[in-house]
Specification:
Layout lengths: L4 E3 L7 H19 L8 H5 L4 H4 L3 H17 L2 E11 L1 E10 L7 E4 L2 E4 H14 L12 E7 L3 E8 L2 H9 L14 H17 L8 E11 L10 H10 L2 E8 L3 E7 L2 E7 L5 H10 L3 E5 L2 H14 L6 E9 L1 H20 L7
Parallel strand pairs: 3-6, 3-8, 8-9, 9-12
Antiparallel strand pairs: 1-2, 2-13, 4-5, 6-7, 10-11
Length: about 350
């Protein structure tokens, strides 16, 4: 059964010690009551026992086992088949992640170099699921994921099913086709705002959850150079629809591989983050701008945003169970009945 099994009435197990005492006392008292005195039991000890004599213990064992099974049935064992988490208040969060070619640049992370995109993915999952440090996770929030380079794409819709979101996050990578490279901050921001607006409009608190606030967490390592919307236009749309934007500039010194006369070499490159535009986006939407130059600083940024976006969560979980007591009860009744019948017929003791 494993960890999915539970007992609805575990107090029934308290009857087992009481039953054991009564059972042992009844056996002892029965032997004393029906004992017959003999001058010598030696002739009986050397005589061969019949099959019935050899099985005299069987009715008691059957009755004992059947009674234990009946007590277990009384405790109502059941197996959990499914669970449904219901949330009445939540925050709707759209992650907007830059996946342009520059996000493949490596930065120092401790004693090793790691790609920016990989650091971002790890921190995003920690934000959603929590870690062993400051982040507790966001299990009760609607979370979606949009990635962008030259074009913005919805990778995961807003949902409470974060396992799906985690899978899309782990599969996120930089663009491989040169024609798709670029940084369309405005288009990605506008798409995220539209998704949040639609979620709020279709939300019915009486039938599900109430969205208490809508936020976008935008991360990029560059500046807007593609797309239909400018970052300012997209930010004004978000502000109009009551959406707050936390913008993150993930810059710092990075290293890229370049071909040289001596083969491929790692060359340091500076940051191309457009801090002024990211600050403007945050200011227009009443959000906040964060600058992160290292993996540790990015982790601190996500922790700070997690602290800023707290809401009173009202949630409950519904479970579906399969009752298991019926088979135990039937087996217990059958064994106890067999013990009583044998004790009264084939294995009856005389006197």
């Amino acid at each position: 059964w494993g960890f999915r099994m539970s007992f609805e009435s575990p107090w029934a197990f308290a009857l087992i010690p009481v039953f054991l005492l009564v059972f042992v006392f009844s056996i002892f008292n029965k032997r004393r009551r029906y004992g017959i005195p003999f001058s010598s039991s030696h002739p009986l000890s050397v005589s061969r026992k019949s099959l019935r004599q050899q099985l005299l213990w069987l009715p008691q064992l059957l009755l004992f086992t059947g009674s234990i099974l009946l007590i277990m049935a009384l405790a109502r064992p059941r197996e959990r088949l499914d669970e449904t988490r219901k949330v009445t208040n939540c925050v709707a969060i759209e992650f907007v992640i830059d996946r342009s070619g520059s996000m493949a640049a490596e930065i120092e992370n401790g004693n090793r170099l790691e790609r920016r995109i990989d650091i971002v993915k790890r921190n995003l999952i920690d934000f959603i699921e929590g870690n062993d440090k400051e982040l507790k996770g966001r299990p009760d929030d609607l979370i979606g994921l949009i990635a962008f380079a030259r074009y913005a794409d919805t990778l995961a819709p807003l949902s409470l099913s974060h396992d799906v979101l985690k899978g899309f996050t782990e599969g996120l990578d930089v663009v491989k086709v040169k024609e798709e490279d670029g940084t369309s901050v405005g288009d990605a921001l506008a798409l995220a705002a539209a998704r949040l607006k639609a979620a709020a409009e279709n939300n019915d608190p009486d039938k599900g959850y109430a969205i208490t606030s809508k936020i976008i967490i935008l991360l990029t390592d560059g500046e807007n150079n593609a797309g239909k919307y400018t970052p300012r236009e997209a930010a004004e749309l978000a502000a109009k629809w009551g959406i707050k934007v936390y913008s993150i500039g993930f810059g710092g010194t990075a290293y890229i591989e370049m071909n040289s006369l001596f083969g491929k070499r790692r060359m340091p490159v500076g940051s191309a983050v457009d801090e002024e535009t990211l600050r403007q986006i945050a200011q227009i939407t009443d959000g906040e701008y964060f600058q992160a130059d290292t993996a540790e600083q990015l982790s601190q940024v996500y922790t700070a945003i997690d602290e800023l976006e707290k809401t009173e969560i009202v949630s409950y979980t519904q479970y579906k169970y399969r009752e298991l007591f019926v088979n135990l009860a039937l087996a217990g009744i059958a064994l106890a009945a067999a013990g009583i019948i044998l004790d009264s017929t084939f294995l009856r003791r005389l006197p």
